[in-house]
Amino acid sequence: MTHDTIPVKDLGTSGASDWTPAFGERPTGTGARRVEPPAIDDRLSVRLHSLRQSFRRRLSDQVEAVFQEACLSGDLQTAEDLLATLERMQARADAAEAGGRRRPSIPLAALRALLEHHRADAQARPPA
Question: Measuring CA to CA, how many Å separate 49 from each of 38, 40, 56?
Fold first, then answer.
């Protein structure tokens, strides 16, 4: 046997019809067909969406975390900008609250106090 001749098992038509593609796999060749995923019950889909939403942090929570990080790192201008953003977000949420659903408010007074505390610390420190 030479290396240009490779023995191949002939499956014929009976072997080819026994093959079933795995989920998401696309068979090749003539007669290729897409294998559709199994149908998901609508109620299950709604429950999964609700579960994902409950684990996702609110945008205001994420902005608050970045605000606190800016305060700790000494970037007080960015912290001030983020506080203004949080105030605008809270104002929009308060305006939309008339529509029904109550959302927890952002602790703006505590965040303002934190920013002022970090400003006082920055002014008390001698310049490096």
Answer: 18, 13, 11
How far, CA to CA in Å, does 32 sit from each of 7, 19, 36, 68? 26, 12, 13, 56
Q: What are phi and psi of 82, to 5 degrees?
A: -65, -35
Q: Which amino acid is at 35?
A: V
Q: How far apart are CA 90 and CA 112, in angstroms?
A: 14
Kindly report the pTM of this predicted structure: 0.54
Q: Is 126 exposed, middle or buried (0-12, 13-18, 19+ CB in 10 A)?
A: exposed
Which tens digit of pLDDT belongs to each residue from 5-36? 555 555 555 544 555 555 555 555 555 566 55
Give the model confidence (pLDDT) of 38-72 as tens digits: 556 777 777 777 777 666 678 888 999 999 999 99
Residue type at 38 in one-letter notation: P
